[in-house]
Fold this sequence. Notes:
Bound molecules: fe (ii) ion
Number of strands: 0
Mean pLDDT: 93
Largest sheet: none
Helix content: 55-70%
Strand content: under 5%
Distance between the termini: 29 Å
Radius of gyration: 19 Å
Structural class: mainly alpha
Order of helices and strands: HHHHHHHHHHHH
Number of helices: 12
Low-confidence stretches: 1-12
Amino acid sequence: xxxxxxxxxxxxxxxxxxxxxxxxxxxxxxxxxxxxxxxxxxxxxxxxxxxxxxxxxxxxxxxxxxxxxxxxxxxxxxxxxxxxxxxxxxxxxxxxxxxxxxxxxxxxxxxxxxxxxxxxxxxxxxxxxxxxxxxxxxxxxxxxxxxxxxxxxxxxxxxxxxxxxxxxxxxxxxxxxxxxxxxxxxxxxxxxxxxxxxxxxxxxxxxxxxxxxxxxxxxxxxxxxxxxxxxxxxxxxxxxxxxxxxxxxxxxxxxxxxxxxxxxxxxxxxxxxxxxxxxxxxxxxxxxxxxxxxxxxxxxxxx
Length: 303
Ligand SMILES: [Fe+2]
Ligand SMILES: [Fe+2]
């Protein structure tokens, strides 16, 4: 197929639907990448960022949905919202697991929740925006989500296709299945946020500005989050070190910054569409078909 996502015109061959997998982290050790607390905590940052982030996506699309008239795009957005809601709940499980291992994230969670409701909503800092400014604010948030979804899709591709180094390191299979299920669904729905942005705004300048802003914020959040979690990890006295990050990349346990930076010009190309990204949607769907967590699921989740 020339257009494996079938999404060049906003359509998908198969409907996006939320799955409801089960992951049991009760026996997952604190250092779930054995002997590698920094890699463990660098990946654990996902449990911090994703629940508030993905719930915020759902908030924003609840605002946007009444404005979308294309039926196929509406269906995609609804499927996307269902998947992101399940992702947020799964990473809540990651937070509960961390709390049970003595890593307290409650202050961070409270701050993130405040940001989601007081800054990320339709009335940032309580401001009543008129129809014009309100629409501009919505478009900017949609552009930010499309940019974030570019990163979740390339990280999803990495965890599905290139993370054998983590298996070689003896990484916990339950945590790996959670990460790969999530990553695979990110690849599955990678076109939706972009199509929604193009449908409702499509401004190229806003897309570029949003991507540059999102890149800077994500980089800072990830470095600060990793350093904070390594410091909070009761099983190690180590501190976060860039050298350790480079070592983990060489061992295939983390994606490289080069991979991330190289993806930027692709996203910034005027004719960009996520369905042309190098990650294989077929491999992602194949992972989902064989995921132990998905196989033991309670069935298809309601959106
Ligand atoms: Fe997600
Ligand atoms: Fe996503």
